[in-house]
Amino acid sequence: MAMLTLLLLLSAAFTLGDRMTARIANDLVTFAADQRNPCPRGWFQFNSRCFMFVKTARTWPNAEYLGANLASVHSYEESQFLQAVVLITTGSFPLTWIGGFDAVQDRLWFWSDGSKFDHESWAEGEPNNHNGAREPCIQINFGAENGWNDESCGKSYPSVCSIRTCLILQTVN
Asked: Where are the domains of the chain?
């Protein structure tokens, strides 16, 4: 039932103009949070993970946050949730690092947290290694559709990090 409500919220958001608004983002984040909320202050819960937008621009390797990883994305709903977190935190959709990378230079993507790369949300024409440059890292909020873009890992952007809620519960006990 919860997933159905989440899908209805997302459907309403995109039926009303294909753009997420601050109100829809707040509704989405509020709905996704477990009432027991095992996430630390300033983090947002989605299923069994907590997410945080980090405003400080860093290179992709330096954005691997202490005690967390750059966020992996495993569904359309989770992708929209990350955009909601960014919008709530910044009021806009800045280019933002997530944890995807192409470690072997042949468009075989991985997540920095070791999870399966089982969802993609590329912007039109991406990934493309623009102008022949190697672009092995993924950012969100690219282009008119706020999709994913492959980018050089040495550029500095804010990021979204994630931690599993079960790790938090283990450290509390």
From this structure: 2-172
- Residue 130's contacts (CB-CB under 8 Å, 6 or more residues apart) are 150
Taking the CA atoms of 115, 117, 119 and 121 in sequence, report the sign of the dihedral they define: positive
- The tens digit of pLDDT for each residue in 86-139 reads 999 999 999 999 999 998 777 789 999 999 999 999 999 999 988 888 999 999
**CATH fold of the domain at 2-172:** Mannose-Binding Protein A; Chain A (3.10.100)
> DSSP readout, 130-164?
GGG----EEEEEETTTTEEEEE-TTS-EEEEEEEE
Neighbours of 34 (CB within 10 A): 13
Q: Which two tokens stand for residue 89?
A: 């935190």
CA distance 38 to 173: 12
